[in-house]
Specification:
With about 160 residues, the protein is α/β, with parallel strands linked by helices. The protein is built from 5 helices and 6 strands, in the order βαβββαβαβαα. Helix 1 crosses helix 4 and helix 2 runs parallel beside helix 3. The longest helix has 15 residues.
């Protein structure tokens, strides 16, 4: 299964750690949305959209990239890291991909070290994350949600 993961990961590189864990095990094309503004994603069987959570949603860079570049009807999955887990973090990006008639394969989110705003005053939250358990979870999610598409057709 040919996969691209489009991401934005700054501050502590939390989200990039998830992607690196997947890329260490499986061949994926990694696209930094802050550096690449346009890409032909039609050649990929699945597209991952990954970001840290900023003001309860994916970073605007990933949202804009998806809006401009995501082909109609693509299989899509989401990866994210956040200081504290809450519902609704993927709603804005899901709305975007739904406008492209995409099929959402699933999402994986985990804690990520966060020193943004007032958290800086207390030394941050979710220290030590993503940890090895979180990284293993990202790989397991990818195998189950994305690669299962490929194995289902071989049976």
């Amino acid at each position: 299964m040919k996969t691209a993961i489009v991401y934005y990961s700054r501050h502590h590189g939390n989200t990039k750690k998830l992607i690196d864990a997947i890329a260490a095990r499986w061949e994926v094309t990694v696209i930094d949305a802050s550096e690449v503004k346009t890409a032909d994603l039609s050649q990929f069987d699945a597209v991952g959209l990954a970001s840290g959570i900023y003001y309860s949603k994916f970073h605007e860079t990933v949202l804009t990239f998806a809006e401009k570049n995501l082909p109609e009807g693509k299989n899509v999955f989401f990866l994210y890291t956040c200081g504290s887990k809450r519902k609704g973090y993927t709603q804005t990006i899901a709305d975007c991909v739904n406008r492209h008639s995409a099929t959402v394969l699933g999402e994986y989110g985990c804690p990520g070290f966060d020193t943004f705003g007032p958290f800086k005053l207390i030394g941050g939250i979710a220290k030590g994350h993503p940890d090895s358990h979180d990284l293993d979870g990202a790989v397991a999610f990818y195998e189950k949600a994305v690669l299962r598409e490929n194995t289902d057709t071989c049976e």
